[in-house]
């Protein structure tokens, strides 16, 4: 979903759209629910800190939380208007992994990351189709090039009237595509169960964070020799076993007993 569409949905669902403030950078947040922005102080009953991997809130109110770390992985993400009927999934090299996912409106989402120094998308035009065709359609103006960062979730997600969700709570590697999905789980849980319900999510956050980190060494083992070993291990692993292991992180039971699965991280 494009960011502009997300904002439109937020406005449509808001009981008071005029309370949404644009281009209003926050300069400070305190544990008693005070937010400082553009020289003014605002008091709230609950502050939901969803301010990303470089969270100002986490840095100021969780000073002992695990620090944000560089992973050494450069990333890409873009959407094309091409509608594919096949060719979806992930493609693994020894230092690069790329993924192709269908979107509900017929477009195609492409993402990837590499630890190869100096590599750009042109370095992968000789990979299997449909990837080269999708790379050819990539528009620099519509592409994001995220710097992949990670931060283990802090043991306590609540500090006074402030809670952490999303990348502010658990920035992670994109191995299983669960970063955005986990953030949506946070939001649904907070809305349905309040801060106490969110606090009980720490074991799942830690499990998915750890799984994404461990999985990245399988997806991109960093050397050709380890890549050969990885490929051999995958060939002898039964598909149901691998599918169950890889898919276990995407299964989540939503509050109220409704099962939800996010294999695409969307």
What does the model show?
This protein is 33% helix and 23% strand. It has 266 residues and is of the alpha+beta class. It folds into 2 domains: 119 residues, FAD/NAD(P)-binding domain (3-Layer(bba) Sandwich), CATH 3.50.50.60; 80 residues. The strands form 4 sheets. Strands 6-7-8-5-9 form a 5-stranded antiparallel beta sheet, with no helix packed on it. This is FAD-dependent oxidoreductase. Pfam families: FAD_binding_3 (PF01494). Keywords: Monooxygenase, Oxidoreductase.
Summed up, what is this model?
This protein has 266 residues and is an alpha+beta fold. The chain has helices at residues 3-13, 56-61, 131-136, 167-170, 179-199, 202-219, 224-236, 239-247, and strands at 26-29, 34-37, 40-43, 47-49, 69-80, 89-92, 96-102, 108-114, 147-150, 158-159, 162-164, 251-253, 259-261.
Topology:
Blueprint: H1 3-13, E1 26-29, E2 34-37, E3 40-43, E4 47-49, H2 56-61, E5 69-80, E6 89-92, E7 96-102, E8 108-114, H3 131-136, E9 147-150, E10 158-159, E11 162-164, H4 167-170, H5 179-199, H6 202-219, H7 224-236, H8 239-247, E12 251-253, E13 259-261
Parallel strand pairs: 4-11
Antiparallel strand pairs: 1-2, 2-3, 5-8, 5-9, 6-7, 7-8, 10-11, 12-13
Protein name: FAD-dependent oxidoreductase
InterPro entries: FAD-bd (IPR002938), FAD-dep_Monooxygenase_BioMet (IPR050493), FAD/NAD-bd_sf (IPR036188)
Pfam families: FAD_binding_3
């Amino acid at each position: 979903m494009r960011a502009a569409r997300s904002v439109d949905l937020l406005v449509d669902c808001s009981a008071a759209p005029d309370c949404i403030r644009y281009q209003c950078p926050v300069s400070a947040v305190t544990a008693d629910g005070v937010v400082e922005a553009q020289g003014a102080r605002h008091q709230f009953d609950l502050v939901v800190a969803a301010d990303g991997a470089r969270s100002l809130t986490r840095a100021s109110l969780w000073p002992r939380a695990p620090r944000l770390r560089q992973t050494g992985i450069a990333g890409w993400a873009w959407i094309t208007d091409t509608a594919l009927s096949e060719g979806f999934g992930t493609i693994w090299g020894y230092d690069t992994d790329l993924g192709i996912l269908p979107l509900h409106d017929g477009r195609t989402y492409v993402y990837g990351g590499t630890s190869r120094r100096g590599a750009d998308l042109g370095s992968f035009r000789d990979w299997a189709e449909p990837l080269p065709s999708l790379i050819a359609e990539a528009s620099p103006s519509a592409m994001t090039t995220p710097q992949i960062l990670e931060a283990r979730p802090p043991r306590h997600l609540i500090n006074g009237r402030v809670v952490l969700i999303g990348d502010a709570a658990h920035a992670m590697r994109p191995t299983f595509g669960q970063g955005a999905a986990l953030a949506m789980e946070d939001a649904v849980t907070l809305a349905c169960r309040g801060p106490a319900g969110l606090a009980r999510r720490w074991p799942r956050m830690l499990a998915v964070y750890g799984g994404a980190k461990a999985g990245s060494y399988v997806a991109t083992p960093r050397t050709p020799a380890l890549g050969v070993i990885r490929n051999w291990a995958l060939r002898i692993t039964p598909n149901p076993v691998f599918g169950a292991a890889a898919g276990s992180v995407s299964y989540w039971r939503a509050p109220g007993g409704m099962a939800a699965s996010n294999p695409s991280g969307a």
